[in-house]
Amino acid sequence: WCQYEVKGEQRIERLYQFKDFKTALAFTNAVGELAEAESHHPALLTEWGKVTVTWWTHTVGGLHMNDLIMAAKTEEIFKQFK
Amino acid sequence: WCQYEVKGEQRIERLYQFKDFKTALAFTNAVGELAEAESHHPALLTEWGKVTVTWWTHTVGGLHMNDLIMAAKTEEIFKQFK
Questions:
Q1: pLDDT digits over A42-72, tens only?
Q2: Quick one: which H or E segment has residue B72?
Q3: Rounded CA gap, B18 and B82, in Å?
Q4: Secondary structure (3-state) at A6
Q5: What is the helix (H) or strand (E) element at residue B52, kind and residue range?
Q6: Do B41 and A22 touch (CB under 8 A)?
Q7: Would you call A46 and B28 a contact, using CB atoms and an 8 Å cutoff?
Q8: Mean per-residue pLDDT of chain A
Q9: Which CATH superfamily hosts domain A2-79?
Q10: Strand-pair category, A43-47 with B2-6
Q11: Residue B69 and residue B82: Cα distance in Å, rounded?
Q12: Element of type H or E holding B6
């Protein structure tokens, strides 16, 4: 994960790689399901063979402990795709 | 749709808005299904209530007629989500 700032807000981001578009989209859906379950939503950039996941919290103007927990849960989901 | 250049490659992009994350993700999946069917893949940025769709063609270093056709088909899919 790398951390960077957008308009004064801290975000964390990681690029995940997959064998094709279909698998990348399946990962996007799995992370989307987690997001819905936790009511906390990332930005998910799906491309051929890769997904960029970005977590941050609007209401606190940047990162919150919950973003780090969501990042850890995203890692767990990724393990199922390896 | 707006057109812009990334590293010398022309791309076309449009932002679509939805009522929530779930509907945005359903749209991402519908465009992903089209992409798989046509073997031509966009970048799909899914966020809460919005999806940014970007089409371009790597092999010709920018836009190809097919990207414009895919953009038109994306519009057709969006109509089903309104």
A1: 999 999 999 999 999 877 767 888 999 999 9
A2: helix B65-79
A3: 8
A4: strand
A5: strand B50-55
A6: no
A7: yes
A8: 93
A9: Transcriptional coactivator/pterin dehydratase (3.30.1360.20)
A10: unpaired
A11: 21
A12: strand B2-6
Of residues A9, A13, A3, the one with CA closest to residue A45: A13
Q: What are the chain A neighbours of B43 within 8 Å (beta carbons)?
A: 45-47
Angstrom CA distances, A78 to A18, A27, A63, A82, B63, stand at 10, 7, 21, 7, 33
Confidence check: pLDDT of B61 > 80 = no
A-B contacts (CB, under 8 Å)? 46
Of A21, A28, A45, the CB nearest to B36: A21
What pLDDT score was predicted for residue A59?
Answer: 73
From chain A, pick out residues whose CB is under 8 angstroms from the CB of B44: 28, 45-47
Partners of A74 in beta bridges? none
Q: What is the DSSP string of A10-67?
A: EEEEEEEE-SSHHHHHHHHHHHHHHHHHHT---EEEEETTEEEEEE-BTTTTB--HHH
Q: How many CA atoms lie within 13 A of B4 on its CB side?
A: 6
Q: Which residues of B touch A42 (CB under 8 A)?
A: 47
Backbone torsions φ then ψ of B60, nearest 5 degrees: -105, 10
Question: What's the pLDDT tens digit per position in B17-36?
Answer: 999 999 999 999 999 999 99
